[in-house]
Design brief:
Distance between the termini: 6 Å
Number of domains: 1
Radius of gyration: 16 Å
Order of helices and strands: EHEEEHEEEHEHEEHEEEHEE
Number of helices: 6
Largest sheet: 3 strands, mixed
């Protein structure tokens, strides 16, 4: 299996990840602000069948997708350097809904007809802030997203993001620390839940969904723009 990750993922974390997956490092140097230039969730959105990627993704990364026979479709618009264009692909797709900001996401997401509904929130960085443990259960570090999901009768739990690390920002966001290997029932974590203030709460929730935890290191949780397991 393949795992797509930030090229700046700490070496120890990367070594641990490579014990389980063929690792493809993602880089978008100079295309977005430096703290985000290795974050795959800025240029990539994942669904059950394939990836949806920005048209201006690097040719080197595109070649790696082709070499590894990873299916993908291009979105309509390029990722821009600044907000809101930088957030166009930072969405969550499950079998039942798309979670996005309908005002800032790429138009392709609004044209999809395979999904029951589009749930639009004010937070444009949905994949950064939130994560789908299952097709019907979302964890999030954004209070506005949590409130919207509750109103839509979608199970969700709100977590803190205060001690999540993202260099250049006061803190990172929860979804950016996580990846899901559905085939093996495994949640990949960039860092250690022992170093997270709500780690025990999250561990219990993960266990209740019959997922095992793969912690990549003993660091605090690091927002690396998500880890995409294919």
């Amino acid at each position: 299996m393949i795992a797509i990750c930030d090229f700046r993922l700490p070496e120890g974390h990367k070594d641990r990840l490579s014990q389980f997956y063929n690792v493809i490092e993602f880089s978008a140097k100079g295309m977005v602000e430096k703290p985000l230039e290795g974050h795959p969730d800025i240029f990539i959105c994942q669904n059950e069948k394939h990836l949806i990627i920005a048209p201006n993704i690097s040719s080197n990364f595109l070649n790696q997708l082709k070499t590894n026979k990873i299916e993908f479709n291009f979105g309509e618009n390029e990722v821009g350097f600044s907000y809101p264009e930088v957030a166009r692909y930072n969405n969550i797709i499950t079998q039942n809904f798309i979670l996005c900001n309908s005002k800032t996401c790429d138009t392709m997401f609004l044209e999809m007809t395979d999904y029951q509904r589009v749930i639009s929130v004010k937070q444009s960085f949905c994949r950064c802030s939130s994560f789908a443990l299952t097709d019907d259960f979302i964890i999030t570090s954004d209070a506005g997203v949590y409130k919207k999901l509750q109103s839509e009768e979608i199970e969700s739990v709100l977590f803190s993001c205060e001690d999540i690390v993202l260099e250049g920002y006061k803190n990172g966001l929860l979804g950016g620390c996580l990846g899901l290997d559905k085939n093996n029932g495994r949640l990949v974590v960039a860092g250690s839940l022992e170093r997270y203030s709500e780690g025990e709460k999250l561990k219990k929730l993960i266990s209740s969904h019959n997922l095992e935890i793969l912690e990549l290191g003993d660091s605090p949780l690091i927002d690396v723009g998500g880890i995409f397991v294919l």
